[in-house]
Amino acid sequence: MDAISQKVEEQYVSSSLFTGGFNAVTRAHLMDKVIDSEISHPQMAGAKGSSCSVPGCDAKVMSDERGADILPCECDFKICRDCYLDAIKTGDGMCPGCKEQYKTTDLDELVDNGGRPLPLPPPAGMSKPERRLSLMRSTKSVLMRSQTGDFDHNRWLFETSGTYGYGNAIWPKEGVIENGKDNDHVESLELMNKPWRPLTRKLRIPAAILSPYRLLILVRMVVLVFFLAWRINHPNNEAIWLWGMSVVCELWFAFSWVLDQMPKLNPVNRATDLNVLKEKFELPTLNNPTGKSDLPGIDIFVSTADPEKEPPLVTANTILSILAADYPVEKLACYVSDDGGALLTFEAMAEAASFANMWVPFCRKHNIEPRNPESYFNLKRDPYKNKVKSDFVKDRRRVKREFDEFKVRINGLPDSIRRRSDAYHAREEIKAMKQQRQKRDDEPLESVKVQKATWMADGTHWPGTWLTTAPEHSKGDHSGIIQVMLKPPSDDPLQGAEDDAGMLDFSDVDIRLPMLVYVSREKRPGYDHNKKAGAMNALVRASAIMSNGPFILNLDCDHYIYNSQAMREGMCFMMDRGGDRICYVQFPQRFEGIDPSDRYANHNTVFFDGNMRALDGLQGPVYVGTGCLFRRIALYGFDPPRSKEHHSSFCSCCCTGRKKAKFSTLEENRALRMGDSDEEDMNLSLAPKKFGNSTLLIDSIPVAEFQGRPLADHPAVKNGRPPGALTIPRELLDASTVAEAISVISCWYEDKTEWGQRVGWIYGSVTEDVVTGYRMHNRGWKSVYCVTKRDAFRGTAPINLTDRLHQVLRWATGSVEIFFSRNNALLASSRMKILQRIAYLNVGIYPFTSIFLIVYCFLPALSLFSGQFIVQTLNVTFLVYLLIITLTIVLLAVLEVKWSGIELEEWWRNEQFWLIGGTSAHLAAVLQGLLKVVAGIEISFTLTSKSGGDDEDDEFADLYVVKWTSLMIPPITIMMVNLIAIAVGFSRTIYSTIPQWSRLLGGVFFSFWVLAHLYPFAKGLMGRRGRTPTIVFVWSGLIAITISLLWVAINPPQGQNQIGGSFQFP
Questions:
Q1: Please, which residues have CB within 8 angstroms of residue 219's CB and are 6 or more apart in sequence?
Q2: 3-class SS at 763?
């Protein structure tokens, strides 16, 4: 297909809505109107253009990057895609206007391209998969020149006399073409002598902090051993039951603390150098004279499922922050997964694509941060600080006005869609009645019932979920949908111009936008669609066919890019020496809209700044579901390169140097491998059993592997790629490619494959993110934690108590499922480091601590009720042990604050919510998991009542909303029991003949310890201005009465109205 035909085909693809699925024909519906508002950007689907001049045809004319008509004939006859193809194929290449032969079919001669060199034409007869695979071939042939006589840089990249043993492309001297080994060696030495600069640095924690930290861990472990031994050898014979329960709980707490503390022995910090990244990949070099970006492509996944729970405006702002990211435009592709198949989400994405026409160039022109318009315009700092361009104020006001109108359109979409659907439905009913009258002239008319559909802006049925559900149009039953909202950008920068109103001047700004694709996978009854993990795997397959970025960044719809250079920071790790063994780069989660006191530890800084930094010093942090940059082939289930060389088993330490050299040679020539033995190499002929029967998907695998390799700019870089290999233009989209993408998002595609089992996101757990990361580490991959100076991503978190508890419940339930599955760290392979295995073991075990924690929270109350304590007497030995254990945990917390950067208040909030969650959500998760494993019964804890939260002026109004849930019963019970026990203990001690003050003080101290941890929970129950739900008072009263009656029944008064000593009832 010639150049102009390919461009015409791509425009047709970007303006068509593709649908299809199981037992359904794949159709492409050409949409001349995507949304009701006007579309101006030429990359966007439904962009306006001239009509075809061929009689009887009203299709749109092909347009260039600026939206101007492309006219293939000198007579300027306007012709559309289909008519042009007909003229080429059946009309002997004659123009329908002037009846003369088309003189050229080369698009670059029809469009003014500023004198850019022509791209390398693909070899004749080569199929699309072969052209992709040709990137990996490097032949040593004579220097080739293009037909114009100019030096052909693209051909030179792959047909040089250079040595590629380490991926080094050697540039010969001017006019000299030598194939001798001596010349290659001399020139390679020149390249080797050039100073090599790393992209990343590992910053170790100062020894003045880390050494005492490790010493304190050792001291506390020794003290715990002696303390537990002393506790076991000194039982309380007067209350052996109380002593027994306390000792069992303390043994478990010590074991749990060791599991949590051991992986923290080697925390590290890391730093990146973006200047070196730019120098290596984006500045002119010998191998890249034009200075085009040599960075690999990134496919960004944004997932959403329900526009009612996840507002479209939030998702649209996330999309806009992605489109405006500081990364080569032609290397980015954004895929939005709408698992609900809602027209509301579809049109909101179209509106976002339309607004991006103004927002993205504005961000590039003035270096806007953050590039989420909602967050940017709500900044509480001076927006004009450090802005040097004179027209910034004018531009900002114009964009702010447009953004306000954009929000109005987004918020008005539900009513707009409903009104439009009602109007079309009324028209269909009138049409049906007319048809009925024509068929039955004299018979009485019956009422006509027409299925109420949801209609798109162009007057056709929406193929996804309808507002009024119908067969094949509901959330669990609809066709697969793919719409290219923004077609792939041109390969070279496109400078803008001053707009028609003369308000915004983008004359020196690149106005191109990254590719944006709407995807809604097919859903049918009777299929397990595997929730978010299934949606992510559908995006992996569709993106592999359409753009095949070697790296994948996944974001939740409410997590936007706060640092526009975040992807460059992550790419520094992937492209550095040894980066080919990194499966993913995890960024910390940062949240907005959290109350200043962070009552329920929503920021979770102890985990993100403490635990994750510590894991980074081992095999890498766990995957936490969002803000993660993946290597695509790691998601495909392949082993890391040189996995035998890095194998850490005992046998590998005994191997001879010859055997290691053999492994190194094998691994150098084998980049794709599955399994543990050398015989289990990746055979692409067996790939359909693993990846499905899509040829394009299978052919894209080695291409993604090659393009994701680090740059071979140093002999120490193994498994590298030649510099300049990724500067060639991308392949254009065609209808067959998108049709193939439709087939791989069908509900039947994963049948009898390894998707969800070994390939992609792993199924079978609520926390599919942790399991997916675990599988990669289990195969020997490493991960990296990237903490940027400016937060990479920001999102939202529930600040309401009940919502927070349900969030923790979901996480804990997933951990219990992991513990009872084959993903238990006890079954991990020898490729996983021992401390990493302990960390994953703790992930599966921590919810079970709730059983012992809830018992231990009742022990102070039981001690006060019974008049006994967990020890016989509060002797010096027990108090010394208690003091040392307390001091060591406090000192450890101080040192942890030092190396992690968190604050003591955040540490204390985390401790408080650990007890709140442990006595509520974690316990429910254990119960839920046990019932599921033992009896196959699934229990869901749902909200039953709601109160308060109607103050719209308060930013944190949701913090005071009290929603009753059964998860609140255990903490309320613990609080009431301990409060009553304190009162009873004081009463007994004061009025007893021989007061036992030591036992009282011990019980009261531990009761106050429990109540101090539960203080945020109690504060959350109070709501605001007396809005506590009545059910809270009812439960508290019932618990108090029940406990009082139980105590009276267990320890009745000695006389008729006497309790304990001389206390008398009034």
A1: 888
A2: coil
Cα–Cα distance measured from residue 118 to residue 108, given in angstroms and rounded to the nearest whole number: 8
What pLDDT score was predicted for residue 137? 42
Which 8-state DSSP code applies to residue 681? Answer: B
pLDDT value at residue 775? 94
Residue 971: which of 1030, 933, 1017 has the closest Cα? 1017
Give per-residue pLDDT as tens, 774-819. Answer: 999 999 999 999 999 999 999 988 888 888 999 899 899 989 999 9
Of 682, 573, 707, which is closest to residue 632 (Cα–Cα)?
Answer: 707
Q: Which range, of 5-9, 88-92, 202-206, averages the lowest pLDDT?
A: 5-9
Tell me, what amino acid is at 488? P
Question: Using an 8 Å Cβ cutoff, are 154 and 188 in contact?
Answer: no
Identify how many contiguous H helices and E strands the chain contains and give both numbers. Answer: 35, 17
Torsion of CA 564, 565, 569, 571, to 10 degrees: 100
Q: 776-804 burial string, b = 16+ CB within 10 Å, else e?
A: bbbbbbbbbbbbbeebbbbbebbbbbbbb
Average the pLDDT over 921-943 and give the result: 76
The phi and psi torsions of 322 (rounded to 5 degrees) equal -75, -45
For strands 16-21 and 480-486, give the pairing: antiparallel
Contact 845, 259 (CB under 8 A): yes
Span 1019-1023, mean pLDDT? 78
pLDDT, mean of residues 266-275 = 93
User: Beta-strand (E) ranges in 752-861?
Assistant: 782-785, 793-796
* 95-146 tens-digit pLDDT: 887 877 776 654 444 444 333 333 333 444 455 555 544 444 433 332 233 3
CB burial class (10 A; 0-12, 13-18, 19+) of residue 449?
exposed
Rounded distance, CA 318 to CA 902, Å? 28
Q: Write 176-180 long-range contacts (CB < 8 A, 24+).
A: 177/142, 177/143, 179/140
Tokens encoding 805 = 């508890």
In the chain, the amino acid numbered 436 is Q
Q: CA 1027, 1033, 1035 angle in degrees (round to 5)?
A: 135
User: What does DSSP assign to residue 639?
Assistant: P
Whether the pLDDT of residue 1046 is over 70: the answer is: no
In 3D space, the residue among 39, 44, 38, 27 whose CA is nearest the CA of residue 463 turns out to be 27
- Spatial separation of the C-alpha atoms in residues 562 and 318, rounded to whole Å: 10
- 518 has which bridge partners? 336, 483
Name residue 1030's amino acid: T
Cα separations in angstroms, 148 against 117, 120, 310? 10, 12, 55
Contact assessment for residue 577 and residue 717, using Cβ atoms and an 8 Å cutoff: yes
Q: Are 588 and 609 in contact (CB under 8 A)?
A: yes
* pLDDT greater than 90 at residue 263: yes
Amino acid at 149: G
Question: Which residues make beta-bridge pairs with 299?
Answer: 333, 552
In 10 A of CB 902, how many CB atoms? 20
Which conformational region is residue 601 in: left (phi greater than 0), alpha (psi within -120 to 50 degrees), or beta? left
* pTM, 2 dp: 0.82
Active site residue ranges:
339, 769
Could you give the CA distance from residue 815 to residue 821 in angstroms, rounded to a whole number?
10
Please answer whether residues 521 and 533 qualify as being in contact, where contact means their C-beta atoms are separated by less than 8 angstroms.
no
Query: Are 539 and 519 spatial neighbours (Cβ–Cβ below 8 Å)?
Result: yes
* 252/247 Cα distance (integer angstroms): 9
Measured CA to CA in angstroms, residue 561 lies from 178, 317, 370 at distances of 49, 10, 7
CA distances 131 to 49, 264, 292, Å, are 33, 48, 21
Torsion of CA 1058, 1064, 1065, 1066, to 10 degrees: 160
Per-residue tokens: 472: 């094949």
pLDDT at 679 over 90: no
